[in-house]
Design a protein that fits this description.
Layout (H helix, E strand, L loop, with lengths): L6 H4 L6 H21 L3 H9 L3 H11 L8 H27 L1
Helix pairs in contact: 2-4
């Protein structure tokens, strides 16, 4: 059975499909562990009626309850790129003022 929404819809919420797969897998694992820890005789029937962990993880991503934050290395690289763009713009402005 195919999980809804499809992967093309989920691409809107992440920067790559690798990130999406990683997010879904991690969140589904967390959901499974939480359900096992809270497992009692009364909850067993209730847990069986719930969505499967992967489906619940996908739904949480589309609802915006689960997201991700890039590592510091990526953030530093983006900051460096932004500073580089600003420096080039400043040099261009100074060159046009000199003319």
């Amino acid at each position: 059975m195919m999980t809804k929404p499809g992967i093309t819809e989920l691409d809107k919420y992440v920067d790559s499909r690798y990130t999406l797969v990683s997010m879904v897998a991690k969140r589904a694992r967390m959901i499974s562990m939480d359900r096992r820890q809270n497992e009692t005789v009364e909850n067993a029937a209730k847990n069986a009626a719930l969505d499967k962990p992967v489906t619940q993880a996908v739904n949480e991503i589309t609802e915006g309850t689960v997201g991700y934050i890039r590592s510091e290395a990526v953030q530093k690289a983006r900051q460096y790129e932004q500073e580089k763009i600003e420096a080039i713009s400043q040099l261009d402005a100074e060159a046009s003022d000199a003319e």
